[in-house]
Amino acid sequence: MSNITETAVEKFLEHTDSEAASFFEACVKCGQCAEACHFHLATGDPRQTPIYKLRPMERAYKRDKAPFSSLKKMLGLAPKPVTEAELKEWEELVYDSCNMCGRCTLACPMGIDIAGTIRKMREGYSAAGLVPEGLQRSAEFVKKTSSPMGVTIKALKAQIAHQEKATGIKIEVDKKGADYMCTFSSMEIMGYPEVLGAYAKLFKRAGLSWTISSVAYEATNVGVQIGSAPMAKEILERVVDAAEALNVKYVISPECGHAYGAIRWAGPNLMGRQFKFEVVHIIEVIDKLRREGRIPAGKKDDRRMTLHDPCQIIRRGGLLKEPRKLLNESCSDFVEMKYAGLSNFCCGGGGGVSANPRADELKTKAFSLKAEQLNGVEGLEAVVVPCGNCRAVFEDGFDEYELDFEVLGLSELVAGTLAGDDQKQG
Amino acid sequence: MSFLEFVQGPMFIFAATVFVLGALWRLVGIIKIGRKKDISPPKASAAAGFIKGNLRHFWPRGIFAKRTMVHIVGGYGFHLGLFALIFFGAYHIDFLNERILGFSWPAMPRWAFLMVSGIAFAGLIILWVRRISDPVMRLISDKDDHIGSWLTFLVMLSGCFALEQAHDILRAIHMLLVNIWLLYFPFSRLMHGFTFFLSRGSSGATYGRKGIDL
After folding, report:
1. Does the distance separating the beta carbons of B204 and A111 come in below 8 Å?
2. Are A329 and A290 in contact (CB under 8 A)?
3. In a domain, A422, yes or no
4. Does the global pTM surpass 0.80?
């Protein structure tokens, strides 16, 4: 067994807890998961069947950890050992062909969480150094700047200055004792900086005390995408340390899918302790402020809009109703797309896929399903996409499929339709 | 001791013991692997999610069901049919009463038994044909899946032949196959009959504590 294989298998086994074991033990190879996977539906390739993507990890478990594995090995009935060639063959399936979106779990009669198990399987791959170049590059950027896109504090401050000028509202950095500390994804900071202005408008109207940390402004966690718990912990530590040093009560996770899961659900487990602050998603904050009457809705945007459900916020994050309530209050012609809600299709770029140029062609193919969903909404003018990464994938996909809808974030829509503010979005 | 007495007596006791102990060993083995305690502050109950996950996955979601209706109908037909045959077939109730439990319950009428047999056979055949013809199922299936399907099919088929209880040899063959099935069960994918609740429950608990309404 080569070093690569030994390391990967060791990690596979380490991360096969009773949950993953129960999945491997319950799967009846019915193939229902394939019918839920956008990569399979878009390509028709049986290798894109979600459960198949877990095969090396399943084999390692059945050979070396499962009940009766010793007996089966003795009798020559255990599965063959995993080889380096197989690991390499599966690398694309593990990183390029899975957004960890979890749609397959809904279709699985055994309720197998394939997305969560892929996350565990990636621990083996990253430990063995079998990580796509694009993700490796993101990790290097993170080491240097804390941002996977190399966004520095200087660049952030420049964007803050622009938004202060546009909104006339001061955005405070490193304000000790503020109640809320906001984090952003690099994609938002560089691609959609109007998000900063939207936060400023909403929080000023609500009278919220908030700040941005100059050392922990980045919410995305490439460690979670690569599948490296030590790296994920290191990235998370910056945010936790900064939030605790500023003594904030809440850390706001931005309109970014995996960032929310990384800090809200995986965070305390990675750090091995609970935080001294509460983690809230920006959608939860806006919804709470709206229910408290602190940011009343004004004139609605009258364009026909639909909502994309980012997987890690909706299906795997539980924030299903909040964005819909906000949209209904901000838009007079909100219509759901086919499969909306828990069963919505992923954009195709989640789980690190959009940071992996090798997967571009596949990602674009998968987006054809999203394009079909959007084209299915008659008279559609705009789509609300409450995730910076999804938003970038949408814009790429729109070029490819020649779609012409406006894409906007939820915070911007709500900030642009506040009572007493007749400014129309877009 | 006749062959029938052997397969209904000592061999059955041995097979049933291996079945019970093997299945228990495997279930305990999975649970004993353990799982780190999730210390993220929950939004809702993981225990409720465990139960909900188990119940929710009994019923396929419409959008996916439409795509694989044949498989779902086959799956439900086979599993419900087999359950009814095992626990509500008159001969099986008599066997369980006399040899294991010491009590009985009302059996299905003969016409219902025959109808349910037909449904169970049709379901199993549909599932197996899909396994050998559908490109996805062909890719992901292994020997264990085929052995499990064939063994179950043979048990059911031999059961039909033994229905009249007219020939001891036919009953003996059925019992022999039942014993082999019981011996194979704990070491194979047939165990999904017991492991499904762990799998559905685990993901249900994870989703449940996040407040996700599956």
Report:
1. yes
2. yes
3. no
4. yes
